[in-house]
């Protein structure tokens, strides 16, 4: 089986298990604080995905959220996996969470998969072959008139209301509306399918955005670091995603380049 087919099968199986999952109160733990959570299901699902990948492709490296990076120091093929993107939603809502799996080879994207688990919607893209939601081809909205844009962010308070966010707050006031799902992967996919026009995620990790960025760029969109620099592959970064390169550049030009403070 090829990597893409394997990934689709694993992600679908993981989604089916998560839909059945019921959380016991003691199955939730705080990681860095009360807003950064992990459940037994995050760990179980990541283990399941890792096992499935490494059984077939033992030389591949995996960067996932819940376990230390595995594999070669300079591997040819790297997988970025987030077993549950939107863990808070998984716990409190049991919807609006995703399984995210991206795969890159020699620094170039191979494919990205983001499963909106409860809606059973699989966003997928292979490099050079367009972006899809299930059987449906998707593309970005192409809107670039700022007052018409819908902006998604996974964390409204940190994005707009912390010190040093004046320009981002001005952007929030100038766009048509701000919405939050609480899952970076699903918010970037919302831009990919034209349901949103911009996404600003100031604390995003490679497993949060690398699968979705392939889907977005295949759908005609663009991503960059919020500083305007290219979005790195292997480091946490403040992410700006838009429906087109033009829209991305317009936002950077009018609202400045946001340099994330050192963590
Ligand atoms: P998670 O659910 O996988 O943790 C909203 O909280 C979004 O930001 C989610 O996509 C969430 O991913 C991500 N997120 C939460 N805490 C984070 C952290 N400490 N660093 C980076 N991303 C985080
Ligand atoms: Ca996660």
UniProtKB/TrEMBL annotation:
<feature type="binding site">
    <location>
        <position position="85"/>
    </location>
    <ligand>
        <name>Mg(2+)</name>
    </ligand>
</feature>
<keyword id="KW-0479">Metal-binding</keyword>
<dbReference type="GO" id="GO:0008934">
    <property type="term" value="F:inositol monophosphate 1-phosphatase activity"/>
</dbReference>
<dbReference type="InterPro" id="IPR020583">
    <property type="entry name" value="Inositol_monoP_metal-BS"/>
</dbReference>
<keyword id="KW-0460">Magnesium</keyword>
<keyword id="KW-0378">Hydrolase</keyword>
<dbReference type="Pfam" id="PF00459">
    <property type="entry name" value="Inositol_P"/>
</dbReference>
<dbReference type="InterPro" id="IPR000760">
    <property type="entry name" value="Inositol_monophosphatase-like"/>
</dbReference>
<dbReference type="GO" id="GO:0046872">
    <property type="term" value="F:metal ion binding"/>
</dbReference>
<feature type="binding site">
    <location>
        <position position="82"/>
    </location>
    <ligand>
        <name>Mg(2+)</name>
    </ligand>
</feature>
<feature type="binding site">
    <location>
        <position position="65"/>
    </location>
    <ligand>
        <name>Mg(2+)</name>
    </ligand>
</feature>
<dbReference type="GO" id="GO:0006020">
    <property type="term" value="P:inositol metabolic process"/>
</dbReference>
<feature type="binding site">
    <location>
        <position position="84"/>
    </location>
    <ligand>
        <name>Mg(2+)</name>
    </ligand>
</feature>
<protein>
    <submittedName>
        <fullName>Inositol monophosphatase</fullName>
    </submittedName>
</protein>
<feature type="binding site">
    <location>
        <position position="208"/>
    </location>
    <ligand>
        <name>Mg(2+)</name>
    </ligand>
</feature>
<dbReference type="GO" id="GO:0007165">
    <property type="term" value="P:signal transduction"/>
</dbReference>
């Amino acid at each position: 089986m090829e990597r893409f087919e394997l990934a689709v099968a694993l992600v679908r199986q993981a989604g089916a298990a998560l839909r059945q999952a019921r959380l016991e109160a003691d199955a939730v733990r705080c990681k860095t604080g009360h807003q950064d959570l992990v459940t037994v299901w995050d760990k179980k699902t990541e283990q399941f995905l890792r096992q499935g990948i490494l059984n077939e492709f033992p030389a591949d490296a995996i960067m996932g959220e819940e376990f230390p990076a595995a594999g070669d120091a300079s591997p040819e093929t790297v997988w970025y996996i987030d077993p549950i993107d939107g863990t808070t939603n998984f716990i409190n809502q049991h919807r609006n969470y995703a399984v995210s799996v991206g795969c890159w080879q020699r620094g170039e994207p191979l494919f990205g998969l983001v499963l909106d688990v409860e809606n059973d919607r699989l966003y997928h893209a292979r490099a050079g072959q367009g972006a899809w939601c299930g059987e449906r081809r998707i593309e970005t909205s192409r809107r670039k008139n700022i007052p018409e844009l819908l902006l998604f962010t996974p964390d409204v308070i940190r994005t707009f209301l912390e010190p040093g966010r004046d320009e981002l707050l001005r952007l929030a006031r100038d766009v048509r509306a701000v919405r939050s799902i609480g899952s970076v992967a699903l918010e970037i996919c919302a831009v990919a399918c034209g349901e949103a026009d911009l996404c600003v995620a100031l604390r995003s990790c490679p497993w949060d955005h690398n699968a979705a960025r392939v889907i977005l760029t295949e759908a005609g969109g663009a991503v960059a670091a919020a500083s305007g620099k290219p979005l790195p592959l292997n480091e946490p970064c403040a992410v700006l995603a838009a429906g087109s390169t033009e829209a991305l550049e317009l936002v950077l030009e009018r609202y400045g380049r946001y340099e994330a403070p050192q963590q």
